Amino acid sequence: MCKATCHRKAFRGKQTRRYINGMPRFVLLHHRTPPHAAKPDHYDLMLEDGDVLKTFTLWQLPDLSGPVTALADFDHRLAYLDYEGPVSNDRGEVAQADAGTFAWIIREKGRIEVELSGRCFQGVLKLELQEDPSEEEGSDSTTSV
């Protein structure tokens, strides 16, 4: 695992796209959840897509050597690209495991491939997607970071 860490402050308000050299950004957040949470600790991979972050739950750090099973989650706000700290409504806290830019390779139902250019992960990440029926669609839109 990459030892690089960043310390980000909370961002309140609307954040707009800020591609780096024309490339969309990604962040991999380690989400530590409280004992009463429905999901155990996990990683949230967030991929910039216009004004939202396409979000995928990973149960461990991704492995670039083969496909990784991930749960498709609801879209999140761009503020999470630069955020570390507590998550509202007692949902735990997040810390950056990696961040950088990426390029879409394959984007289809059930499968995504992206080329990551992060501080830690450099290469192609292949996701095999599963739907998570326990998540409410869009629940992030009304809560603060």
Helical run tally: 0
Give the number of domains.
1
- Classify the beta-strand content into a percent band: 35-45%
How would the global form be characterised? globular
Distance between the termini: 26 Å
Protein name: DNA ligase D 3'-phosphoesterase domain-containing protein
Organism: Blastopirellula marina
Topology:
Layout: E1 25-32, E2 42-49, E3 52-58, E4 68-72, E5 85-86, E6 93-108, E7 111-118, E8 122-131
Parallel strand pairs: 4-8
Antiparallel strand pairs: 1-2, 1-6, 2-3, 3-4, 5-6, 6-7, 7-8
Q: Overview of this structure, please?
A:
InterPro entries: LigD_PE_domain. It contains no helices and eight strands. The chain is mainly beta and 145 residues long. Mean pLDDT is 84; it is low at 3-16 and 136-144. A hairpin with a 6-residue loop joins strand 5 and strand 6 (93-108). It has one domain (25-132).
What would a concise description of this structure say?
The chain is mainly β and 145 residues long. The chain has strands at 25-32, 42-49, 52-58, 68-72, 85-86, 93-108, 111-118, 122-131. The protein has one domain (25-132).
Structure characteristics:
seven-stranded mixed barrel, LigD_PE_domain, single chain, disordered C terminus, mainly beta, DNA ligase D 3'-phosphoesterase domain-containing protein, 44% strand
